[in-house]
Amino acid sequence: MNKKQKIQALTDIMSRFTAYVGKHLPDDVMQKLTELRKREKVPIARTIYDAMFQNQKLADKLNRPCCQDTGAIQFFVAAGSRFPLLGELRQIFTDAVKIATVKAPLRHNAVETFVEKNTGNNTGTRLPWVDWEIVAREATATINVYMAGGGCTLPGTAKVLMPGEGYEGVVKFIFDAMTSYGVNACPPLLIGAGIATSVETAALLSKRALMRPIGSSSANPQAAEMERLLERGLNELGIGPQGLTGSSSVMGVHIESSARHPSAIGVGLSVGCWAHRRGTILVKGDMSYKILTHKGAKI
Three-state SS across 107-146? Predict the structure, then answer.
């Protein structure tokens, strides 16, 4: 397979996978929603969970997206420095989104800023957004496709705390955000928190945190403990599915962090709604692939 053929093959793979992600939730999300439904005590919350599962069945049966807001398409990529199409990936993603918009279909969610014109194909200036991580000496690419909805992930927030606020300030920041807009973000939510040295680094890490499988823990023991405590505390808010009360407000809390300047604590928050449309695919140099998030998926 020559380079031109590889570009065409990967464009086809990514267009079909992007369309698939819009219609099928990943295994970890479905498993967590099933767990929350089993332990739910509030009648209306149980009814809402049942409606969620029925929605997923219909999305599969009718071959349609499981939420009308198919989001702004974002790609989080860990690409090996030896991956043969490293320089072509951005264009491949753009072309794949254009194709998926028609074939899935996906709602037209790309509006050019200032021009205020919908492009009609979910692409535009710097969209789809691509976040890069280059892995030395590797020849594969691990690609996360994410549909960032307008009511959940996109209204994320970030700020820099003064050092005296400490990690208590981080907790307060997260609770303040959850109690202000969490109800509107289609809970139960997956919480992604970034703790870093500035607004942009914290915000980016908070989004990367949403790419982790639900149930995973931070490699840092203190961060892992904060994840557990935040999850317990946020669930005690009683927001429940779709904000109509219930035993669980969140599916989980994921924290990603970096070293920081001693006089500042950057904190960012991103959330994924219950329909957390994330898909991860591993692509090898010969364009063979393995879907990591949806067992038995056929695209």
Answer: CCCCEECCCCEECCCCCECCECEEEEEEECCCCCEEEEEE
Tens-digit pLDDT profile for the chain (299 aa)? 999 999 999 999 999 999 999 999 999 999 999 999 999 999 999 999 999 999 999 999 999 999 999 999 999 999 999 999 999 999 999 999 999 999 999 999 999 999 999 999 999 999 999 999 999 999 999 999 999 999 888 889 999 999 899 999 999 999 999 999 888 899 999 999 999 999 999 999 999 999 999 999 999 999 999 999 999 999 999 999 999 999 999 999 999 999 999 999 999 999 999 999 999 999 999 999 999 999 999 99
Q: What is the DSSP pairing of strand 72-80 with strand 129-135?
A: parallel
What does the domain layout of the chain look like in residue ranges? Answer: 3-23+66-149+277-291, 157-272
The fold for domain 3-23+66-149+277-291 equals Dihydrodipicolinate Reductase; domain 2 (3.30.360)
